């Protein structure tokens, strides 16, 4: 008796929205590695079209002309899987809504959209029973979202610290390793293609803040939006700050931090923040160089974990996109509901004032008796304990006398107490300048 013939599996139609740095690499891999991808997915993956703004634009990858279209809406309506790599809010949001309405699985790398409107999209995908995947939205090639959502779902994450923007990490690393000024390091990042001509989203921390909202939502099973993230960029970090940090055994990194906290009434919540941070050089994140990314997780049972790799670039990010595509396709072949997030409750966001952290404060002061005592008194009155204090005398005061430079590192205290301390110290008549205020982690 002849064995039964297995009927061929119907191909899954894939529509790609956007053909920029990442999109062009996704298209290339879908075409060049179609056989292997189809074998892993359990069905052929057929790229049916690539939506672009302009047909005649120059692209990194040469694609068959018949694949390109400016009619994104029609392309979405004929797809089983829609890959959205357009960026921005619109028309990406409308096209994702349209894809979900037509029962398509969606894979996106759009951190700005997910941070702003993710909850709305997740709810629509849940109601439609389709998958919305977004591994590429946070740290490029690094597999971080699925491990948080799946591998650590039986644990309790207490804290996440991440270097999630390669541009700012490259700039700060250049300032640390070469002594470059901020402007020179930014120019080098632009020359290498790490930074855009308008680098605002990176250097002001907005890109990292969007990723912090996504990480917090998955880690603490609660939907956090961009508005819940406190954000500071790196434009105020100077070469003097970098040099002083190095002298004290620290490195400055732009960190995205999400952590479980309790407010003054003892109620649990989550603080989410992005800002330049001093890290001891012994901390694992301090060794993350260049444009690389890393996410450091603290969990009750697993302990400390770190995920490290290339956080940007067309080919590395395409790897994360196609991982989502193959996973989603496999689910479609085998059957089963789509999966987006794991929100099981509501833990309220807490303001930056509730966060307990440490400060490193740089002060320019008059070199005269009693100055240290007056400063120490203000710290004590605000309940802020000083861990270390370093003083350096300069012979070039404005009146020809001497001045002193103080660098004070505090113990952990509420942000509100630390901010009040700095404000009161700055008002003293013996303080000529507050040269820097940086938060410290890892001590």
Secondary structure blueprint with pairings:
Layout: E1 12-17, H1 21-32, H2 34-41, E2 45-51, E3 68-69, H3 72-77, E4 81-84, H4 92-101, E5 105-108, H5 111-128, E6 132-133, H6 136-139, H7 145-151, E7 157-163, H8 166-178, H9 182-191, H10 200-203, H11 206-219, E8 230-231, H12 239-247, E9 250-262, E10 268-280, E11 292-299, E12 303-310, H13 314-334, E13 349-350, E14 356-366, H14 371-381, E15 386-394, E16 403-410, E17 413-414, H15 415-426, E18 431-440
Parallel strand pairs: 1-2, 1-4, 2-3, 4-5, 5-6, 8-10, 10-13, 10-18
Antiparallel strand pairs: 7-9, 7-11, 9-10, 11-12, 14-16, 14-17, 14-18, 15-16
Can you offer a commentary on this structure?
- The protein has 443 residues and is of the alpha/beta class.
- It is 36% helix and 27% strand.
- It is built from 15 helices and 18 strands.
- Strands 7, 8, 9, 10, 11, 12, 13, 14, 15, 16, 17 and 18 form a twelve-stranded mixed sheet that branches. A six-stranded parallel sheet has the order 3-2-1-4-5-6, with helices on both faces.
- A hairpin with an 8-residue loop joins strand 15 (386-394) and strand 16.
- The chain is elongated, with a radius of gyration of 25 Å.
- 44% of the residues are buried.
- The model has no long low-confidence stretch (mean pLDDT 91).
Describe the sheet with the most strands: 12 strands, mixed
Radius of gyration from the CA trace? 25 Å
**Would you report the number of β strands?**
18
Poorly predicted regions: none
Helix and strand content put the structural class at: alpha/beta
In helices, the fraction of residues equals 25-40%
Distance between the termini: 73 Å
Helical element count? 15
Strand content: 25-35%
Approximate shape? elongated
Overall pLDDT confidence: 91
């Amino acid at each position: 008796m002849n064995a039964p013939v297995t009927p061929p599996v119907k191909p899954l139609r894939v529509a790609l929205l956007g053909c920029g740095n990442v999109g062009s690499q996704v298209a290339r891999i879908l075409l060049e590695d179609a056989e292997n991808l189809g074998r892993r997915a359990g069905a052929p993956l057929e790229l049916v079209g690539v939506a672009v703004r302009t047909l005649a634009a120059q692209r990194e990858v040469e694609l068959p002309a018949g694949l390109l279209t400016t009619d994104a809406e029609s392309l979405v309506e004929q797809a089983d899987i829609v890959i959205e790599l357009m960026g921005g809010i619109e028309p990406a949001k409308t096209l994702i809504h349209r894809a979900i309405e037509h029962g398509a699985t969606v894979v996106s790398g759009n951190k700005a959209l997910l941070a702003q409107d993710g909850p709305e999209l997740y709810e629509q995908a849940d109601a439609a029973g389709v998958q919305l995947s977004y591994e590429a939205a946070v740290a490029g090639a690094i597999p971080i979202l699925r491990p948080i959502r799946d591998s650590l779902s039986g644990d309790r994450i207490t804290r996440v610290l991440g270097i999630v923007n390669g541009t700012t990490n490259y700039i700060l690393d250049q300032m640390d390793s070469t002594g470059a000024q901020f402007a020179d390091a930014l120019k080098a990042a632009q020359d290498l293609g790490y930074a855009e001509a308008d680098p605002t989203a990176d250097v002001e921390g907005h890109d990292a803040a969007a990723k912090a909202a996504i990480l917090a939502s998955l880690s603490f099973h609660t939907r956090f939006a961009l508005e819940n993230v406190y954000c500071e960029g790196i434009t105020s970090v100077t070469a003097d700050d970098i040099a002083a940090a190095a002298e004290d055994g620290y490195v400055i990194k732009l960190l995205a931090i999400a952590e479980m906290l309790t407010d003054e009434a003892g109620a649990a919540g989550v603080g989410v923040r992005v800002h330049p941070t001093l890290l001891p050089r012994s901390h694992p994140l301090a060794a993350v160089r260049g444009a690389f990314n890393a996410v450091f997780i603290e969990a009750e049972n697993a302990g400390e974990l770190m995920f490290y790799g290339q956080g940007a670039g067309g080919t590395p990010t395409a790897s994360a996109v196609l991982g989502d595509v193959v996973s989603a396709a496999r689910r479609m072949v085998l059957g089963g509901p789509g999966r987006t997030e794991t929100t099981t409750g509501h833990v309220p966001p807490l303001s930056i004032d509730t966060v307990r952290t440490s400060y490193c404060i740089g002060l320019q002061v008059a070199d005269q008796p009693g100055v240290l005592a007056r400063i120490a008194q203000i710290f004590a009155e605000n309940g802020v304990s000083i861990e270390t204090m370093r003083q350096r005398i300069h012979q070039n005061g404005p009146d020809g006398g001497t001045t002193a430079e103080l660098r004070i590192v505090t113990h952990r205290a509420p942000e509100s107490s630390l901010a009040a301390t700095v404000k009161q110290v700055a008002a003293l008549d013996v303080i000529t300048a507050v040269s820097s205020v940086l938060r410290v982690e890892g001590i």
